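Below is our example:

___
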Amino acid sequence: MNNTLTKWDVLISGESRMLWTFLVSTILKGRYGPNMNDPGALFFVLMAGLAGTMTLIYFPVRLFLTATARSRRLKLLQRIRKLRDELGQPLES
């Protein structure tokens, strides 16, 4: 890349100059995104797939297991209370 600045380049800030250079090079080269052969793109696709899988499979299973565990705990608590009440009453002969 050429490091010499024109009169117009001096008038804009460094960030704007970098953005302008990027946009011009992108439009002129006809590239609109990163190269899919880049290892970073593969990593992103794998992570997005893992996140999608967790959303579709893990969370509903986790919610179901939590709900059934609470149900089991509630039934066990009710059974314990019932047994305590029975123990508190005198035995009938």
User: Anything to note?
Assistant: The chain is about 75% helix and 0% strand.
